Protein 1
Amino acid sequence: MLFRSRDFFSNNIPFNLLRDYGASISGPVIKNRTFYSGVFEGFNQRSDSQLNMNLASAAMRGGDFSQLQNSTGNLLTIKDPLTGVPFHGNVIPTSRLNATALKIQSVFFPAPNYGAPNSTVGNFRGIVKGYQRREQVDFRVDHQLSSKNALFTRVTMLRMPSYGAAGLPALGLTVQRRQNRNGVISDTHTFRPNLLNEFRFGLTRDYNPRGLNVNGGFGTAMVQELGLTNFPANLPNIPAVTQVTISGYQGLSHLAYDIPAFMVYQGSDNLSWIRGRHTMKVGAEIRYYYSAKYPASGSGVDPSQAVPNPYGTLGFTGQFTGNGYADFVMGLPYSSIMSTSGYVRDHRTSSIWAGFVQDEFKASPRLTVNFGMRYEVETPATEKQGRLSNFNPVTGQLVVPTQASMAFLDSLFVGTTNCPVTGLK
């Protein structure tokens, strides 16, 4: 707090409080044979985030664009998309305003609270309180089986929940509840002073559910409240809303909802042999990957998170009236994107099989030569129910793994002139 400075766009010094603490313990379990060590570290931070947004003026929210100016200070003309003629007085008649757009505006877009009444740049400022925490535990046990054989095992557990600004105040906070688990066991056996073998097996699991931190009020209930229609029958009820982009103005978007889980199993065995000026190693490794998440396809894909938003995305660019917000209040999107393929969680697996040989040759006291070879085989990813597909540009066909996979393909796409036949491989 002592050296925290005021943000350029803030009237006050934002609040920030950080705590970092920890503890450790270690000691013998069996004298000269078994030892343990443990470490705990905690970190938490409470801080303010500054909101600085470009919102429509109070008059524009009701269709009055009579005071809207362009970057050169001249009046920006709002034209009637039906006739191409400017609206009288640059005011859109109330009867031409779209009820759903006005509802979205009322629910999500706050009125300006900063600057001149007709300003549309940086005219909303606010503070959102965020919070993040990190707790990590590491525990290790070493055991000497004999003078030639040693074991160790280590477990790491990490928890990192964080809450931050979602964007518009009505969206509340976004939340990520990351958890990570990691474990390894190792056996080292010394056959001779110059011949040693190490076997290791490890497991890593990462779980990071994320999205809006809300309890009800969003999802399908919000779709009905806003009056949005033409969604597929299997629309999922998740904490998300239809995303809206408006050229030149603050849009409606948020951290994409997802429950990604990743696991890696890894086993390796390495043999080291020292003979004369040579240190030779030979070994093998197997890695097995598993992931479960919502795939990066469909509508409203968030580039930072690469998952779809099943409620779609509406884009307003000013194509029809000459101003993005005027297009919005009239309900005239330039683009409207929505997925019809559902919102399913896929489960993918793949593996890597590898082996290597290596020799470190000490040619002279001043020259050491390393050479070797590693060979890897990486299997292609497979999905639990065979829902992966690809497109063959040579044959113009979709390639799917099994005949049963055909049931997951969108009937609106398969069978069209662009994709006349689905290929099977």
Note: The helical segments are 58-61, 99-108, 220-226, 324-329.
Protein 2
Amino acid sequence: MKGHTPLPQVDYWELPPLYHRWKWRVLTAFCLFYIFNYLGRFNFSLVQAAVIQDLGVTRADTGWINSWMFWGFALGDLVHGRLGEKIGFRNLILAGAVGTSVFNVVASFGDTIPSLAVPWAIVGFVNASAWGPGLGVVAQWWPRRDRGRAIGLVGTSAGIALLVVWAAVPWVAATWGWRAALRYPPLLVGITGVLFYLTARDRPAEVGLPEYRESDQVSREAEASTGGSGSGLRAYLHLLANFRFFIACHVKGLDNVVRYGIVSWAPVYYAQAGGFTLQQMGWLTFAYPLGYLFGPIAGGLISDRYFKSNRAPVIVISAAISAAATLGIALSPADDILLAVILLSVGGFFVNMTPIQALAVDLAGRRLAGTAAGLLDAHGYVYGALQAWFFGWLSLAAPGGWTWVFLVMAATRVLSVIAIWRVRA
């Protein structure tokens, strides 16, 4: 974004105290905004059982509707990160937050599959403006040496967001109906988007501060190689030509098969196979976002402090242990509450411990951080859209369908271990 001329770069440890206050201000503001973001994106997943009962549709139908949100989000990811680098990250985050509130209200009036799916796809598209531009803002203030911690805190805010949505939405739906769950909680997304816009700034130059000089070789080389990637599709082609980034994109996709597979289908599984009510299901599956709460910051800190910002070893550990937890869900009885809580907590922690987003920004550098975060996440949401449809179908089509759903999730974690070994960063 033009309009502010950057001051000369200085070493990170030589930046003035005001810089460090601002970097925490920006990070905190974005995390607080993101805590409420899922009230407008994952609320439909949590009321699928009520929609099925009210409208007389099937799990495959609601899975199809939900997949439209993932496709919309994937398209938004491709657009918003790059656009944010051109016209301003905060501008897009604000527009997407308000749009999320508006189109949730529109969806709440739907009574057919198309009248739910179309606004829900638009919700996905506009809500995507929070992610690529958000990580783009973070990357302007945080170098690779501390980026795992910073993006880990963003991930932890997403874990808190899941706690918020999984606690609030089933309660609202049980009290006032599933339409109210699409209508009222998402209004908080627009409100907090306005507050973020007023509190944060895109870049240090906007408040008269110098930029950090990248001291780490991986990101320093990445930033040096982006000089000719400033217009059109060149930024995308530049990133996808990097083999390590290309592999990371597909590992992110495999991650999302499990991350959003559990978010989308664990509530339905425990409601139907375990026989729990909507409110009981909300509290039972509270365990998954509880694990999610601590996983991202742990992964970021471990990769920064113990692996010198090398993300691959932490991703391997995360994938291996979460594969075991997902396998446990597949093979354990659905009505065993204690075991379900343990497996969902462990799965939530280790599925979300992977610092794959930090890896993508590391490989791109701060100039293309928004594009990289969006492009990586777009791959994740293509996989997420496929799982939303595929698992809905598989749960009905195969004998013991729910067992196969979670077995496939476990297998994708093993594939992630194999793939990430090719990435040394």
Note: The CA atoms of residues 357 and 373 lie 7 Å apart.
